[in-house]
Amino acid sequence: MHRIIETCLVFMGMSAAIAEGACGLTTPGAGPLQLHPDNPHYFCFGGQPAVLIGSGEHYGAVLNLDFDYVRYLGALHAAGLNLTRTFSGVYREVPSSFKIKNNPLAPAPNRYITPWARSGEPGYFDGGNKFDLAKWDEAYFARAKDFLAQASKRGIAVEFVLFCPMYKDEMWKASPMYAGNNTSGVGDLKKDDVHTLANGRLLEVQLAVTRKIVTELNAFDNVYYEIANEPYFGGITLEWQKRIAEEIVRTEAGLPKRHLIAQNISNGSKKIEDPVPSASIFNFHYCSPPNAVKMNFGLARALADDETGFKGSADAPYAPDGWDFILAGGAVYSNLDYSFYPGREDGSGAPDAPGGGSAALRRSLAALRAFMQSMDFVRMAPDEAAVVGLVPAADAKGGADAKAPRPTTVRALAEKGKQYAVFLRGAAPAAVILALPAGAYDVDWVNIWTGDAEKSEELNHPGGPKEFPVPPYKEGIALRVLWSCANAK
Q1: Are the CB atoms for 87 and 161 separated by under 8 Å?
Q2: Does residue 236 sit in the same domain as residue 211?
Q3: Contact (CB, 8 A) for 22 and 15
Q4: Is a pLDDT exceeding 80 seen at residue 37?
Q5: What pTM does this model have?
Q6: What are the C-alpha distances in Å from 335 to residues 58, 310, 458?
Q7: Tell me: the pLDDT tens digits for 39-88?
Q8: How far apart are CA 339 and CA 348, in angstroms?
Q9: 200 near 206, Cβ under 8 Å?
Q10: What range defines the domain where residue 449 resides?
């Protein structure tokens, strides 16, 4: 089906990029992940137009020596996903953190590996020797490089998160940067002073580890860097974030490759007022509804829903949230999947944490990625006006005592007159109305849980408003309308 669509797009003159098989390039693997030159709301990855969709473990794949990342990456690849997120090891958690059972970010004693080598002096908080912040652990960098290499083999991009706030004193007192855990004479600070420009000699330690990570990982095309996870907690200042980003840019100026930088903006949605100048990706957490996309689309950068959770362990909120965000115009959906943890790197674990995770959820997100790839999405943009109306369901409940269903929400991407993608969530209307030019169209209603077509038709339309009856659905459904090859005959 996808090859038919590609051929048809070429006939229509819609996508020279797809005709060439790349983002204006002719060879696969053509440089690092980058913003698409024709539409910087999306990516080029492996030389192809891309959105990044993942459902990944709780960020400890590299720093936790008990985590089998090869098995984990194999599971992501088999699921049809192309993104994971991992923390650098500069920050860690402890078993009681956030009540997460089997937390990959809380390694067992002596199973924690960081960019810094252990010293010869005992006294690290949970056993083993303290860290020497002036000495690198080459075993860590070998592990980080192999993680990226294994991800690259499987077509998976890696968001490499450099820093994270110390949410509570327990995290700070577990950090190698804490004075009691290192032999370098730094870190005698309160937790909220760690990520500021007024942290004394610790700043140079942070800049040095940034340079080292960026240098060691420069050869990889499938990595991008987030400056800091959730910098709106724990006293992380914007000035400090800008300084770290400057260090990334300066370091890579003398290296062969340049990589994208992500800035985490807020939980929920927020208008970006003072972005880090070198940031190309803006991350939001728990961004449902996806208002951040509309607020910030004018920045012409990739927008991400970068973490999910706190809505229970069922699949229902998280998979539809992904469809909602991407069909609103987002480029990244990074679901936090608690079914992955040490011993369950295949994703077969039962979530016992603030979020969900399952094979069914991953199947839905893979269907989302495939849905986007079935279109020339680089030429599409959010278009609320593409849907000119909804026909209410005949059995819609009314009256003062009626239990109101969740209101229908509608997201739409469009290249007017050529391709339309619509996502419905909430109460099912009887029909969706689109205004279409005269012509032939291929129409599919897509089940968001399986990716299968619930209903398909070849439409010959005289022009004007057109009603599309909506099949029954669970939580959401997607409509795809493509200008048909028949118009090229």
Answers
A1: yes
A2: yes
A3: no
A4: yes
A5: 0.94
A6: 10, 12, 35
A7: 999 999 999 999 999 999 999 999 999 999 999 999 999 999 999 999 99
A8: 6
A9: no
A10: 383-488
